[in-house]
């Protein structure tokens, strides 16, 4: 039996602040060149650093593609590794976006849970990718930074009941090239799909008995 084709959506961010070129979008474009495995349709989007656009765009992407997984990629000026974020936070958004806007409530979803975890076990993904001995170090984080990255992640986790992931990359050349980041994203997302499929098989087995 042929495996059904699955959609995976991957987003990077547009320029903001001192990031005139956003490493996250460059890395996502590299991933697009490499592609994912054969049964996956990869859709990539550049997201502007604007709260209101994120709130409109994320649900629209889920509706349009019904993806198996959405992976958001963002840049962190403090990062020196490729970082897998475990969870998104609802409250504490005070930083102004590119439109000089920040949510009046300082939260993503009023009345939503304080924190939502990804259904993907990031520790497992990190271990597996590290075992591939790529020339990129992968680490784990529980704080995506309370700016557009965290805001996007929470919005997506809320929308998808946890079927989202977030990856922080360092700025280009500090220390990785675009090609290295693209290859790392390819490996990370393929492991995420694998982990997701195995956890779903387990759930399905439990339903059948």
TrEMBL record:
Main location: cytoplasm
E.C. numbers: 3.4.19.3
Reactions catalysed: Release of an N-terminal pyroglutamyl group from a polypeptide, the second amino acid generally not being Pro
Presence of the UniProt keyword Protease in the record: yes
Keywords: Cytoplasm, Hydrolase, Protease, Thiol protease
Transmembrane portions of the chain: none
One Pfam family linked to the record: Peptidase_C15
CDD domains noted in UniProt: Peptidase_C15 (cd00501)
Entry-linked SUPFAM superfamilies: Pyrrolidone carboxyl peptidase (pyroglutamate aminopeptidase) (SSF53182)
Role this protein plays: Removes 5-oxoproline from various penultimate amino acid residues except L-proline.
Name the record gives this protein: Pyroglutamyl-peptidase I
């Amino acid at each position: 039996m042929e495996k059904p084709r699955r959609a995976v959506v991957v987003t990077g961010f547009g320029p903001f602040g001192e990031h005139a070129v956003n490493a996250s979008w460059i890395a996502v474009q590299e991933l697009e060149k490499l592609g994912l495995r054969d049964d996956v349709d990869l859709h990539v989007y550049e997201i502007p650093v604007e709260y209101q656009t994120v709130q409109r765009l994320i649900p629209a992407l889920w509706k349009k593609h019904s993806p198996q997984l959405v992976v958001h990629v963002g840049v962190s000026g403090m990062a020196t590794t490729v970082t897998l974020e475990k969870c998104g936070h609802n409250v504490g958004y005070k930083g102004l976006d590119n439109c000089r806007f920040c949510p009046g409530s300082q939260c993503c979803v009023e009345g939503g849970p304080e924190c939502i975890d990804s259904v993907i076990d990031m520790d497992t993904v990190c271990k597996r990718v590290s075992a591939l001995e790529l020339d990129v170090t992968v680490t784990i984080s529980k704080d995506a930074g309370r700016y557009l990255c965290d805001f996007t992640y929470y919005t997506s986790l809320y929308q998808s009941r946890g079927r989202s992931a977030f990856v922080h990359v360092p700025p280009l050349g500090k220390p990785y090239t675009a090609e290295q980041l693209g290859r790392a994203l390819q490996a990370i997302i393929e492991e995420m799909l694998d982990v997701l499929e195995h956890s779903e098989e387990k759930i399905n087995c439990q339903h059948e008995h």
